[in-house]
Amino acid sequence: MPLPNIVQPEIIPISPSLRLRKYDGKYELFLPGYQNPTVYQNSEGIFDENRIPTLDYVKGMCNYLQKIGELYYIEILEDGLFIPIGDVTIKSENPPIAIWFDRYHGKGIGKQVMQTLIQRLKILGYNKIVGSTVYRWNTASQKLHEGMGFIRSDENEREIIYELNLK
Predict the structure, then answer these.
(1) Residue 122, Cβ neighbours under 10 Å: how many?
(2) Which of 10, 13, 91, 104 could bridge across to 69 with cysteines, CB 3.0–4.6 Å?
(3) Helix, strand or coil, per DSSP, at residue 116
(4) Vertex 110, ends 108 and 111: CA angle to 5°?
(5) Percent of the chain with pLDDT over 90
């Protein structure tokens, strides 16, 4: 939790067919998503085909993210049921968003989740998002950040780092 004594909502609705649901400890749901090479590369910056995330890796990642922010599943409504298709951690420094499955890429889900993340941070009293790190090869995430008004605050050979004033 990013702020002491703040209750993390169980559900944050985004649209009738998209929502965030509070992480409930079922880290195994993350595994297929992070075994997608594109997701793993864009999340961790690792291109090694021999290094595929294990269940222990995903468990450790979820435990860490849950300690430093509000961890949520990104869920979409399909056939009358909400199913997890990604994750987001609401925090003011380098907030990660991952859409796990290729069939959901390019549909504006990341933008809707980012808008929701920004609104939640405002509610929590944050004034700025800092250190939002995007790998240079992840042009979709760069376009998302820049299209939402994020400003480049730093960069290096591998990464572009963004910030956004929330005031």
Answers:
(1) 12
(2) 91
(3) helix
(4) 65
(5) 85
